[in-house]
Design goal:
mainly alpha, five-stranded antiparallel beta sheet, Glycosyltransferase, two-stranded antiparallel ribbon
């Protein structure tokens, strides 16, 4: 206790009340969860939603409680609203979905791995470690004494592959994809009761799972082979996910993509249960928090405060998805919020190299909210699909020019009406020139096929490190048709703490090393996302 008090008093005076408030909120949330556990029975779920009669009657009643989802799948049947893809693109979807049928997955640089007939949802298939099916609060999620990576089971249980199965189903009408969807979900329920096991250990991943399960419903809802009983259990589980997220928010005095993911998960679930008391509460809370987090997490120039181009994409994807859902449900966000989101996309436009790829500043774990095309899944360093979405939302011809085309990912988010609006925009607007982002500390030079990006910003997460690196004054250089000088990127988190620190060290970046020392102290042990706020680059004009 004395140590904790000393640690608190070491913080800047202005931060202490915020930290105390967060600690109190978290303690209250823990007490609330013990008194009112997120998991509720099917009987109580039916009563809260006013359901009665047969499973089909209840399912019909639940459908009346929904808000509007993304326009590509919300109205009519999915088979009536297919994106205009070529034969090769459709075949790529089918090939990818068939790999899922064979339980072949690839995460975090693993390469394709076949998981066998029965998936072990608690296993890191890269290291072989299996977490026991104990209450999540009793699990040791991160163990630096071995080479395990808890993100592997978390990534698998995000269920982002369901969108691949769903798209294959609507293009082929083949029931085998629906059967795989049902089999996986039922097996996951049996192996992962609420609050038990590794897959409840990170609220962010619970929220992303809920978002992807919501997408899956819209892809498979017209499938006649799926029984009403299954869908009723499905909505029951989603409702429990919402209660779990609300009770386990990843709060902090300084917040990042984890907390934002929690909030966006509540947006998806709030829309799904829009006409229920819980859904209205989730939506109201999420709307207020989105406004607050845009102001907190994104600098006025549009740069996310985590100082990572990869996480910039994730945060933009989270905000964009929420904005589209709010627009479809006539929920307004402030003009200041929208202007800052537009600035985020300006940053994306400017940091994109002439070949469409990004500079590799900061951490990268390929994090996404949802993956709605094989192209964006495979080309992880191409963020131009975000600009296609932004072109439509903000009526920006220059975003259209930078995007190049209306990507499949954009079609699923905006539908055919969005595609038509995109096509109506002129293919004009100037290519990005040299531009500075003083708040976030990034500077870019563009001239024809010459490009340079310089990091002159603060340590990530407002001085805490987070997903930033010891890369002050580091740069990338692109000439002709290739990157000549590249950032080192990031390839490991907890599986190898020494390698983790090596990739975020001064020595790994394109900077001068003075006396063989780090420019700022890197956290060790479990502090692998900590960097001392000791290296502050300064712009001299």
């Amino acid at each position: 206790m004395i140590g904790k008090i000393k640690h608190l008093l070491s913080k800047p005076p202005a931060e202490i009340p915020k930290i105390v408030a967060v600690k109190f909120t978290l303690a209250f949330g823990t007490l609330w969860q013990r008194l009112f556990p997120p998991a509720i029975s099917m009987r109580k779920f039916r009563r809260r939603l006013g359901l009665s009669g047969s499973d089909q009657d209840s399912l019909d009643a639940i459908g009346l409680l929904f808000g509007s989802f993304f326009p590509s799948v919300d109205k009519g049947t999915a088979h009536d609203r297919l994106p205009p893809l070529g034969g090769a693109e459709i075949q790529e979807i089918i090939t990818g979905a068939d790999r899922v049928l064979d339980h072949i997955f690839e995460f975090l640089g693993s390469g394709p791995v076949e998981l066998g007939k029965k998936i072990n949802w608690h296993r890191d298939f890269k290291s072989g470690k299996v977490w026991p099916k104990n209450k999540v609060e009793n699990l040791k999620l991160v163990d630096l004494s071995d080479d395990s990576d808890v993100k592997v089971p978390w990534e698998l249980s995000r269920f982002q592959h369901l969108a691949l199965l769903g798209r294959a189903y609507i293009f082929t009408n083949d029931e085998k994809y629906a059967a795989e969807f049902v089999d996986e979900i039922e097996d996951w329920w049996a192996e992962n009761p609420c609050g038990v096991g590794v897959n409840w250990g990170c609220t962010m991943d619970v929220a992303i799972r809920a978002a992807n399960w919501t997408w899956a419903y819209y892809f498979f809802r017209d499938c006649r082979s799926i029984e009403p009983e299954f869908w009723l259990k499905y909505f029951h589980s989603l409702y429990i996910h919402g209660r779990f997220i609300r009770a386990n928010l990843e709060l902090g005095a300084v917040r990042g993509n984890h907390y934002l993911s929690d909030i966006v998960g509540l947006v998806y679930l709030g829309i799904m249960f829009k006409k229920t008391k819980a859904g209205r509460r989730w939506l109201s809370f999420a709307a207020a928090e989105l406004e607050r987090e845009m102001d907190h997490q994104v600098f006025p120039d549009g740069v996310d405060h985590e100082a990572s181009t990869s996480y910039q994409r994730l945060v933009a994807e989270l905000f964009l998805s929420a904005v589209i859902l709010f627009k479809e449900n006539s929920i307004n966000l402030s003009q200041g919020f929208l202007e800052r989101l537009e600035s985020m996309l300006v940053f994306t436009q400017v940091y994109t190299k002439p070949d469409g790829n990004i500079p590799l500043f900061g951490d990268a774990d390929d994090g996404r909210l949802q993956i709605l095309s094989e192209e964006t899944r495979l080309n992880i360093n191409d963020h131009r699909y975000l600009l296609a979405v932004g072109a439509v939302l903000f009526n920006r011809a220059d975003f259209k020019r930078a995007a190049g085309r209306f990507w499949e990912e954009a079609w699923w988010l905006l539908g055919e009406e969005g595609r038509q609006k995109f096509e109506s925009l002129p293919m004009s607007g100037e290519a990005p020139g040299s531009k500075d982002f003083n708040d976030g500390g990034f500077y870019f030079m563009h001239h024809e096929d010459y490009y340079m990006a310089v990091d002159c910003g603060p340590v990530g997460l407002r001085g805490g490190g987070g997903h930033g690196h010891n890369d002050a004054l580091s740069f990338e250089l692109y000439v002709g048709d290739k990157t000549l000088i590249s950032d080192s990127g990031t390839y490991v988190y907890t599986a190898d703490s020494e390698e983790r620190n090596r990739f975020r060290s001064t020595f790994a970046h394109n900077v001068i090393v003075v006396d063989g020392k780090e420019m700022a102290e890197l956290g060790t042990g479990l502090r692998l996302w900590s960097i001392a706020d000791q290296a502050r680059a300064k712009l001299i004009t």
